[in-house]
Design goal:
- By secondary structure, the protein is an alpha+beta fold.
- The protein has one domain.
- Helix content is 15%, strand content 42%.
- A six-stranded mixed β-sheet has the order 1-5-6-4-3-2, with no helix packed on it.
- The protein is globular.
Length: 86
């Protein structure tokens, strides 16, 4: 799942101790982070395990700022609808 990051704290709703609240579309995701440096790009990919409604971060991948998220979202939508092609 791709979410908005904390680049310059844009799109940041809250920051609470070791928990960040990131937005993905209309949803808010609580992430227990291992450091905010990993969230300093426009988009990030967070892998982890959900425990009691909180995503416990294991790995954060920065996505380049020039990444075309609209095109990627379109691909995901097509993949869901036409999975046999992909």
């Amino acid at each position: 799942m791709f979410v908005n990051s904390l680049l310059n704290y844009d799109n940041k709703d809250k920051l609470d101790d070791d928990i960040v609240f990131l937005k993905s579309g209309e949803h808010e995701i609580m992430v227990k982070h291992n450091g905010l440096d990993s969230y300093k790009s426009k988009y990030v990919r967070v892998k982890g395990k959900i425990i009691n409604g909180v995503l416990i971060e294991h790995v954060v991948n920065k996505i380049p700022d020039e990444f075309d998220m609209k095109l990627f979202n379109r691909f995901v939508e097509l993949n869901m609808n036409f999975g046999s092609i992909f």
